[in-house]
What does this fold into?
Amino acid sequence: MSNKQTGNIRNPGPGRPRGSVNRTTAALKEAVLEAFDRGGGVAWLLALMQDEPRIFASLLLRLIPPTPPEDRSDDDDGDIFIDPDPDL
It folds into this structure.
């Protein structure tokens, strides 16, 4: 036997449209980007790369999607080279 009540319950609405971003997610993303800009942006990332390369690599792994094997060229061994002193 179900615990659901019947009677004055309306049909649920259509909900959030497919592909639309949750307001909380959008607000959090905007806050993170603002903090990044205020905290030094690219200069901060470069300092992180120099001072904490393992943390920087972990960040890259989370942000850059992997390339599917069929999209790689035959001469690509999958290694990524990061120039520690880029000319900006």
User: Anything to note?
Assistant: DSSP finds three helices and no strands in the chain. Residues 72 and 78 are 8 Å apart (CA to CA).
